[in-house]
Structure formats: C-alpha cells, structure tokens
Design a protein that fits this description.
alpha/beta, Arc Repressor Mutant, subunit A, D-Maltodextrin-Binding Protein, domain 2, 2 domains, two-stranded antiparallel sheet, 11 strands, 43% helix, globular
C-alpha cells in the first residue's frame, strides 16, 4: 500500500516556504497561522525531519526543508495543471484577481456589464495586494499593478501609473491650498503601496528636502483607506486618478493641481501565463476588459 504524506500539510508547507512566513501562508490559504504551524508540524513528524527552524517572530527553512520543497513544488504544479485542464473542459466560469483598490474604485461599477453581455458565464472576482502564483492558484487571468518585469507572463497595459494630489474641497479651502508649496502646511496621506510623495514634491514644488521632511504625514497601508481619509478631510492623498474619478465626479474630492501629474514606473496590466492558453471564457473576459479600458489614458 502506498503511504502518502498528509496532503493538506504539503500545501501549507509549500505556501510557507514560498512566502517565508506562516502568517502570509495563512492569509493565502484563508486559515490561521496556528493552523499552518500545526500542518507543518504534522508533516515534519511524518517525514521524521525538521523543515523549519523557529525563533521569536521568525522562521527559517532548514537544508532538508529547502531540498524537499525543490522536489515537491514541480509535482504540485503538475497536479494543479492536470486538475485544471480536466475542470476547464466544462467550466463556464472565469476566475480573476485584481488589486483591492482597482476592484473597489474602478472595476466594481463595470462588472455587471460583463454578465449582461455574457449571461451564461460565471464571474469569480478576488482581490489581493500580493502577486498571485498562477502555478498554484486557481486563477485564469489577473490585473496586476507592477513594472511589467516578468518574462513568464503575457501582459497588456490597461493604465499607466500616475500620481496626482487630491483632497476634500473643504480641506483645500480651509488651508487655502493654491500651489504645491502650500502643502508644507498640510497633512500628507502617504499610501505606502504607492509612495511617491518625495518624487512628486521634488518635481513640482520649490520646497527644500529639509522642508519636505518636516511635513506631517500619516502612513496608510491600504489605498482605498488613504482615499477615504482624504474624503473625510484628514489631509491630501497622492493617488492614481483612475481610482478617484468617481469621488471627483461626485464632489467628494478635488484634484488640487491637475497640471502636476507625475508618471510613475508602474501600471495596471492585464496578465496571464505564457505557458497556458486562455480558455474561451477567459478570452471573453480579456477582450471585454480591454474594450472597457479603451476609455483610459494609456500612455
């Protein structure tokens, strides 16, 4: 009789060693870090080898762990690919992942159009900031915010990254913000996922580096939260105009200096693996999204 290792433990181990974190593995697999630790302990007991060394707030793969991962990862990818190919034969769904801010601020108002145009297709939308692994995650296609540096992917630029200043109308009037130099007396809402304040101020203000360093800042790790903070008069946010278009149209935000928009070396790309042909439903979604994105200023 073939003795298989605990398969759930293999999945937990692969995620933990790839991400070098029990917490990130838990987030990816939608379980607790404790559950990841228990699964890996179970695998270690089955193998009779320690796969990680553990210390306070840190894990490190052992030599045995690294060797084991190198051998099982290709096999796990083969299992995913084989299973997906069988499933795809009758699957009329599309699985797409995109950044949370893009999903909430741009895509959510448009996704119903796809289902109207393609009523027999089931659309599954996920949102996460981390880059997905197409070899392990059941995803057909994704929108990724990055620098287009990945030779394994087919990429199409949807929107070139930009950084522009926005705040609530009342905040602008209260501080009398008329020029970029006036931001010296503002609070800068710094979206750490798109941290371009120093570049923007260096390009468009006359403030010295020492003056820029003294400006009050609030560090925020979620783009949508940074935009909401600006809407509620907490400061000035530096954001991609794509993500603020609805709030500007509704008068919740104003574009402070529309002539001063910084182009950044990132963008929103529609991506899928070069090694895997897109299924029919995924092709429909790709073509639809590219048509929707024609209104965007790609440049």
């Amino acid at each position: 009789m073939v003795s298989y290792p605990p398969l759930n433990s293999l999945r937990a181990f692969e995620a933990a060693i790839r991400l070098n974190s029990f917490s990130l593995a838990a987030e990816e697999l939608n379980v607790t870090p404790g559950a990841i630790g228990q699964q890996i302990k179970k695998l270690e007991e089955w193998l009779g080898q320690e796969l990680f060394t553990r210390s306070v707030r840190q894990i490190r793969p052992t030599a045995d762990g690294l060797e084991y991962a190198a051998r099982i990862q290709p096999a796990l990818r083969q299992i995913v690919d084989a299973s997906q190919q069988v499933r795809d034969r009758s699957d009329r769904s599309v699985r797409v992942v995109m950044p949370p801010s893009f999903a909430a601020k741009w895509f959510s108002r448009r996704m119903a159009r796809f289902l109207i145009d393609h009523p027999t297709t089931s659309l599954h939308v996920g949102s996460q900031s981390q880059m997905i692994d197409f070899n392990l995650d059941p995803v057909d296609i994704a929108v990724r915010y990055f620098d287009d540096q990945d030779d394994s992917l087919e990429t199409v630029l949807l929107y070139q990254g930009q950084a522009a200043t926005f705040c609530a109308p009342s905040y602008r009037d209260q501080l009398n913000l008329q020029t970029p130099d006036d931001l010296a007396r503002a609070t800068l809402l710094n979206d750490i996922l798109h941290a371009w304040w120093d570049d923007w101020l260096g390009a468009y203000s006359g403030l010295a580096a020492q003056e820029v360093g003294k400006i009050t800042r609030i560090e925020i790790d979620q783009t949508s939260m940074a935009i909401e903070a600006a809407i509620h008069g907490q400061g000035v946010v530096l954001a991609n105009p794509l993500l603020t278009e609805e709030d500007v149209a509704e008068g919740k935000l104003v574009h402070l200096f529309p002539q001063n928009v910084l182009r950044v070396p990132f963008g929103y790309y529609l991506v899928h693996p070069k090694s895997r042909a897109l299924r029919g439903q995924a092709k429909l979604f790709r073509d639809w999204l590219l048509a929707e994105a024609q209104e965007l200023a790609v440049g």
